[in-house]
Amino acid sequence: MDEKTVRKIAKLARLQLKDEEVQHFGQELGGIIKWVEQLSEVDTSGVDETATAGGVRLRTDEVTDGDCREAVLANAPASEFDCFVVPKVIE
Amino acid sequence: MSDLTDLTIAEAREHLAQKKISAVELAKAYQSRMVGHKDFNAYIIETPEIALAAAKVSDEKIAKGKAGIMEGIPIAVKDLFCTRGVLSTACSGILAGFKPPYESTVTANIFGAGAVMLGKTNMDEFAMGSANLNSFYGAVKNPWKRKKDNKDLVPGGSSGGSAAAVAARICAGALGSDTGGSIRQPASFTGTVGIKPTYGRCSRWGMIAFASSLDQAGSIARTVQDAAIMLEAISGFDEKDSTSAEMQTPKFEKALAVKDVKGLKIGIPKEYHSERLDPEIKKLWESGADWLKKQGAEIVDISLPHSKYALPVYYIIAPAEASSNLARYDGVRYGLRIVESADSLDEMYMKTRGEGFGPEVKRRIMMGTYVLSAGYYDAYYRQAQKVRKLIIRDFDEAFKKVDVILTPTTPSAAFALDEKPTDPVEMYLNDIFTVPVNLAGIPAISVPAGLSKDGLPLGLQLIGKMWDEETLFRVGGVLETAADFKTRAL
Amino acid sequence: MSLIKGNTGEWEMVIGLEVHAQVNSNSKLFSGASTHFGAEPNTQVSLVDAAMPGMLPVLNEFCVEQAVRTGLALKAQINLKSIFDRKNYFYPDLPQGYQISQFSHPIIGKGKIILDMPGGEKREIGITRLHLEQDAGKSLHDQSPSSTFIDLNRSGIALMEIVSEPDLRTAEEAGEYMKKMRQILRYIGTCDGDMEKGSMRCDANVSVRKPGGKLGTRCEIKNLNSIKNIIKAIEYEAARQVEIIEGGGEIRQETRLFDPDKNETRTMRSKEDAHDYRYFPDPDLYPLVLTQEFVDKIKKTLPELPDEKRERYVREMKLSEYDAAVLTAEKETTEYFEEVAKKTDPKLAANWITAELFGRLNKAGLGIAQSPVSAANTSSLVSMIQDNTISGKIAKQVFDIMFETGDDPKTIVKNHGLEQVTDTGAIEKIVDEVLAANPDKVAEYKGGKDKLFGFFVGQVMKISGGKVNPAMVNDLLKKKL
Question: Which of B74, B280, C426, C429 has the largest count of CB atoms under 10 Å?
């Protein structure tokens, strides 16, 4: 996988890579992609990949959860005024 | 005292019921043995106070005649399961220090049945790996050693810590998880029994997600009976998990009461034979079939035509789902956050995830991101899901002819820590016999069947129909008796 | 069709609207936390909403019902099988790092909405689709210069994303579309349509082209939180695009923000690759499979929709288009009117409500839901006018008292002795009295001054305190003069 693609994918996945990593992953990912490419030889015409035995299960519309702010914020790296705090996002 | 750790779960349960031993004594015996076996690095955190407190409660329950099916039994829990107030990190640096304010359903179930937690075990980071070499807490050593040298060997993965702990007898049994073979393969490498149930049998709520459509909790133990007891304790419908099945949990242990396999048909898939198959393993596989035949089974040749595509299908679907499941690890609400050198929120994400995830995890996230990305989705992800349907169809067809399928568990015995293949694809080939099972959502068990010429354990795998773990335990029990695998690592 | 006059000729606007409507439900789409507005930060957040490790979604059946209900009201195709997909991107108010939405197989397919333009013209606007998805949390940027604060209360609330076909041609039509959509959603109770609170939001896709020409490149405008702003933003954007194209430039496909203070649209920070959402079916959720029975059951619970109601009022009750429109504008108004009209003449009821009730409500700054006069009491009053118990004039007095006190008309009339006099003998007596007291006027009238008739009527009214039946007064006067 070429460097440009590796960097693009890493950016999409929010993974900062060192330059050596970019090279390294490029080679490995290229190898894996080549290996999985064999799936293209399988005739899958008429196969519905979304078919399932049953449909999604539904629940009734009741308030059964929430009201656990302490637990929600317990592991926060930074919190203030009962909110999570992150570096400013500029729209 | 150390003899107590020789007892299987079934035996310990018996001793406890007859007041020959107390749960506290049993827990202490394990804790004492753990002290002398830290070098395996099987545990990432030990929980002695929790264990003793729970053992005390178990003793009271046993005295009152209210014992659960795992009452007072000391177990190890794979670090993939969220345990309330106790470090739960999936052995990743990105979850360093995370103590969940909630308990996973599976651990709640087994603790509700009376089990006592000795600690959390080591694993490949986010369950991605087959050798437990990808852990934030370092590698796990297999208690087994080769005859020819003294090299440290891998225990298999991703449930390497759990398997090593069972093999070293520093727990009575252990919880693991299996997405592509992560219970069965380490069980095979460590001479233990490992079961992955039908997808949906156990709840995934509170289990740190790797690949949602493949992950399942299961047990690793010394005997088929023990594995059955543990599986019964963790199974059951959970309304908090939409993929949890509304199925009653059978009394798995009872399945072992039938000590023969008369009338059962055992399938041998021809595609699993190959010239590359290690002759030792081939021989063991044939022995397995013979043992079952002697006990009354009919051996039937079957075909699973799309077998060779299972690994590529898995290595598209699992990373794809993982790339999305791991997006929540962003340093905002819990876990690691690297913000010092970050100029913006995006940089905080990049640095936190870049440093917090290990190389195998990053590799799979990128693979997953790639196969889902615009322009590649149809050719890779969608095609993989379609081929998956064909693999499922193969099993459906095969199970019209047979009740259980017999295969080797792994293509080799455990290898040394420094013999790890550098090519990721070569590493992935370790999962060749285990992965198809996860794709189809059917249950499978690995039973230790023999030793390699190097003196290392080799397992045989039995694959069952959906919801038919009972037949697996029955046949597994027969296989276990016939194999008579008595060797211990220590 | 209204066109923009540019330098090189006339331009046509092509507008499509994406409405995000928060579903009126007690709990969230995939978690059991409350959806109530205005709670303290992070108190309506479950571990699932906070995307803790190992958490899983479970679908709220009522939200599915509400989506089907909305689809039926939009005359749309109900897809019995639909799939939840993950839309993957990174943002701090999106805890999972993906939004559970529907991409390839939405629950609702093509439908339509009919707009009643102010000029009387009817315009049919197509609906492309409607799907269910999770709302995101709130990012608070203004609390600190270097940090953003995240409140996840809103995270996970069910949204219906309703996408229109690019059939709208003017900013005014876009405004009417929003009004109609809001009216329908409020009628069927699936969304409260409160744009100020943010329970209904809108993005506009705008492009321009020469009439009959190829579709131009479109820009998406976000942050439109009122119908007024939607109209302004679209007008600005269309003009901006015309200017660029006529100036020889090209429109860049981008997302823009509307600045209501400066009345202009601006480019949002360019996101580039961030737009590769890598949609794939959520492996934690099986496909949503509905039975025709489920859909039919919901269809039965649909109330009469505003358009049908309006037509019925005109057709059966003979109301004017205008009155019908006013009375059907809001569900509460319609319910009030229909209760009153149950036992009275609808036209009379309509007149009374639009003229007398609305006037007083507006003056007092109240909505019909806060009316001090109940529908039952208004009904009573109108009945009393109909059966001549009181005259129309007296009725207005009574209504004033009803508005102030909330009392029922029968009691008020009794207490104030305001019953209409209908006894011919009594009226005749007063008429004779009046004629006797004004002989010169009688003579003038008989001499040809017809206008004086009103004077005599007025005098009769004065003496009787307005309580006589006017029709009878007229008859008797005519006879006697």
Answer: B74
